[in-house]
Amino acid sequence: MASRRLLKSRGLQERLNAGESILCAEGYLLALSRRGYITHGVWVPEFILEDPAVLKSVHYEMAHAGSDVIEAFQYNTHREKMKQIGREDDIEKINRTALKIAHEVAEEKNLLFAGGISNTNQYVKGETEEKVRAMFEEQVRWSKEEGVDYMIGETFSFLGEAQIALEVIQSFDLPAVVTLTVHGAKGEDGVVRTRDGVPIGEACKDLIDRGVTITGVNCTRGPEMTLELVNNIVQVCPPEKIGALPIAYRTTPKEPSFMDLTDSICPANNPVYPRGMEPFCVSPVEIESFTKSCTSLGMKYLGICCGNSGELTRTMAETMGRKPPASRYLDHTQFGFLMKLKMSGEL
Ligand SMILES: [Zn+2]
């Protein structure tokens, strides 16, 4: 118990100050969709109220694979989405249930416990700021009351909405990881911008100047295209303040977002997003390469978003020099019967 208290007393900021890196497994929405518990469309994780053990099992999977953080699955459990499915009355219950499940696993495994807020799809500059602020406030209040170590604000395509998220989190005196997502391609000037027209590096710098603990990018783009953004961002921001959590699907300069993807091999699969993404899954090798690139830049906060799995998180953890519980299942490829024959030329 004593050692647990000692570890838990070291929060996100203390660990970062000590030069440690943080691995945060995300991607619960698609992980649970793949298991058949979420339907495409409004993407609300209603199952949390009916089948909480299912969510707990995915948290365990990510802890086993090496995540330092258990993030409560509050993605899309905000007021507008709950209203869309006629369950607005359940909003507090679903948030608190998600938080309690994450807290239990984080306590048991001695990991950081994070709450989450995300894009509301309601942000219109000069019109809806107060509505968006109120939506964030209730979710952050419940998270604080349930004992989170810090808050994650993610997938904001407008810097303005990310700024509100940061202000709300700061008003509850919690450390904030606030990451942006970029849907569009480069402009004609070669610069990638937020939807409110701010170059991505400048947007991250703005959040750093406002006191964010970690900013950066998550979701929407695969490792290679996320790395392109990161290389851009670190031109104007200190790498240790930048996080990157790509999707686990390949995207390209021509189709930088998973919403852009087209399947030329199986045209019936178009539009690829959201139901046809499996042919674009990245391999552990690609995650290894991405992780090496980010750590060599000096980045300290990494993870994987949509498409994540225990295998990919384990690969990222091992590439970061960790030996998570899942590493006990060593790579036996070199001992495989058929591989041996193949390598000796007999097959
Ligand atoms: Zn994602």
From TrEMBL:
<dbReference type="GO" id="GO:0032259">
    <property type="term" value="P:methylation"/>
</dbReference>
<feature type="binding site">
    <location>
        <position position="219"/>
    </location>
    <ligand>
        <name>Zn(2+)</name>
    </ligand>
</feature>
<dbReference type="Pfam" id="PF02574">
    <property type="entry name" value="S-methyl_trans"/>
</dbReference>
<feature type="binding site">
    <location>
        <position position="306"/>
    </location>
    <ligand>
        <name>Zn(2+)</name>
    </ligand>
</feature>
<dbReference type="GO" id="GO:0008168">
    <property type="term" value="F:methyltransferase activity"/>
</dbReference>
<comment type="pathway">
    <text>Amino-acid biosynthesis; L-methionine biosynthesis via de novo pathway.</text>
</comment>
<dbReference type="InterPro" id="IPR003726">
    <property type="entry name" value="HCY_dom"/>
</dbReference>
<protein>
    <recommendedName>
        <fullName>Hcy-binding domain-containing protein</fullName>
    </recommendedName>
</protein>
<dbReference type="InterPro" id="IPR036589">
    <property type="entry name" value="HCY_dom_sf"/>
</dbReference>
<keyword id="KW-0808">Transferase</keyword>
<keyword id="KW-0489">Methyltransferase</keyword>
<feature type="binding site">
    <location>
        <position position="305"/>
    </location>
    <ligand>
        <name>Zn(2+)</name>
    </ligand>
</feature>
<dbReference type="GO" id="GO:0008270">
    <property type="term" value="F:zinc ion binding"/>
</dbReference>
<dbReference type="GO" id="GO:0009086">
    <property type="term" value="P:methionine biosynthetic process"/>
</dbReference>
<keyword id="KW-0862">Zinc</keyword>
<dbReference type="InterPro" id="IPR017226">
    <property type="entry name" value="BHMT-like"/>
</dbReference>
<feature type="domain" description="Hcy-binding">
    <location>
        <begin position="10"/>
        <end position="320"/>
    </location>
</feature>
<keyword id="KW-0479">Metal-binding</keyword>
